[in-house]
Amino acid sequence: MSNKSLPTTQKKGKARLGDQIRSIADRLKQETDVQIQATSRILGAAAQIAENHDRLINEVVDMVESDLNAEKNAYQKHTYTVDILRQQFKTLRNAKAHFNLKVSSWESLVNKLNAASSQTTIIKNKTQSNQGLAETNMINGEHNFNNIEKLTVFLEPDVAEMFPNSEAVNEALRFLIRVTSKNR
Question: Model-level pTM greater than 0.90?
Fold first, then answer.
């Protein structure tokens, strides 16, 4: 009897061992499937991030190119020449009265007008900056935008280091406006 029971016990032990191995194999297969699905999702997300990154880079490049072209066109529109002024104003006296400038020739008028359109005032001292704001009626929320072309903005020293002239400030602000308006 003991001979007959031994093979039965061995068969049951082998069956249990086989079941355990199959169970382990099934769990490994399930874990592998989960890992494959997770990897697939990660790769899909990475591809989407790369696509969005490329799209954003292209949008930024387009905006910068557009702003540079607009700045170039604006600069060309505001550049005065003697011929343009003579066509617009029949006499030097009329032109001087219109721009409220004291000059002795058409050339000096052109030089003053072109120089005035490209100037930027930078104040390096905070006290001077506050005095400048008071002079332009901008303290306590009061704004004087009657003549926006003559609006003077005073930059703090750290900002002035990054934006050394009016073109740089205008370009940065236009870019900021476009980015924020696209995100709304």
Answer: no
